[in-house]
Amino acid sequence: MLRFLLMRVASAIPVLAILSLVTFAIIQAPPGDYADYIRSQLINQGGASFAEADAQAQAYRVEHGLDKPLPVQYLNWIGGIITRGDFGYSLYYNKPVADVVGERLPRTLILALVCHLLASVLGITFGIWAATRQYTWIDSTLSAISFLGMTVPRFLMALIIVYLLVFRFNVSEIGSFFSPQYGGAPWSWAKFADLVKHVWPVVAIATFGGLATTCASCAAICSTR
Fold it and tell me: What pTM was computed for the model?
């Protein structure tokens, strides 16, 4: 078991290295950097001269290593992640990236666990149901659902649901866990119902894909016995 885990971890290292290279390339692809943004902001909104703004932009580049060649910037970035757990600084949220991820990680793990449990329970149940009723309308319906769940990309299902909610049902609160009145309120059944109302699209999309795969696998296994 330990050897298997070590092999899986070792096989993931090249994949992570390639992903890091692709991510870094995407970040560097747009022209300019954040120092250019600082310079334009100082000129347009701060009333600074070009020389003053450019001096501050260059100081920012030197401080954050943006003046170095791209391979050096990449190695500094990866080295900070591996040695210090430093993923950089989020300019959008104005805080370290690790803090931004840490704030959202518990919710993400809870959602993933709920979706996994639902997909497992419903998938096994539907798979046994389909296997015990072969060549009936139940088997055909569940097979069609499994086929759609395994072939339709989840991002496409997400876009369709968002479109229906926003443009057909006039739902305005998209991308949040709670309504404004429940944001800082203590837990209650009303707050829990509000949470379910907001997260059900995420749970439904993630569960549907896993349910379809589990259902098809379970039905195939039961049919052979």
Answer: 0.68
